[in-house]
Every structure is written in structure tokens, then in C-alpha cells.
Amino acid sequence: MTGGLEVLRRRADFLAANRGLRVARPGFVLLVRPNDEQGKRYGITVTKKIGNAVVRNRMKRRFRELLRAALPDEGLPGHDHVLIGREGGIERDFGKLQEELSAALARAVAGKGDPPRKPRARK
Description:
The chain is an alpha/beta fold and about 120 residues long. It is about 35% helix and about 20% strand.
């Protein structure tokens, strides 16, 4: 637990967040979903498509710092917040990422998510 923020660890929590509100930004996608008043929780996921382990870990460290700074003030109480890394996220300026996260959280607070994604075709 980090300053009142709990970290999501179970796959089921990440899958549940995927059914919530989605706000896409150039460096990341923010997922927000109510969690039955379990406080502000966050999770970070970066797939192998983004890069090797060094790149993915660096991106996760940056996201962790972004969330620790923004969630206590701007996050939704009683919600899970999940950041999914996108390709442009590793090169983006940290200040720019902070602005984008604030804007994404403001949209989530207003309940204005992006339209749901179309289901992917099965292979």
C-alpha cells in the first residue's frame, strides 16, 4: 500500500477494469471501474509489443510515479485505475504524460469515456 493507494495484483481485477470506462491518450489508455468501495487502487500493464524487459520496466516505473502523484488528488474514490502502456509512451516527455493523465482523469470523473472497443476477431 502506497500512501492510501493499493496496487492491483489479481488478473481478475485487471479484467474487471477492462469492462469499465476507457480513456485513450497517445502514451497510454486509462481504464476506470468502481470497485465496491475498496479505496483507490491502481494497476499498470505493458505488453511485450512495447519493447524488451528494460523498456517495459522503465515505462512501468514512469507510470507508477505518474499515478502516485496524480491519484490521491485527481483519482476517483472507490475505483480501480489501470494504465495500459502504448507505443508512444516511452519516448513522451514526462510533463506531457502528467498533463495527459490529468486530462484523462478529469474525463473519467465527468464520466466521459471513449466508445467501447470493437471485439477482436478470433483467429
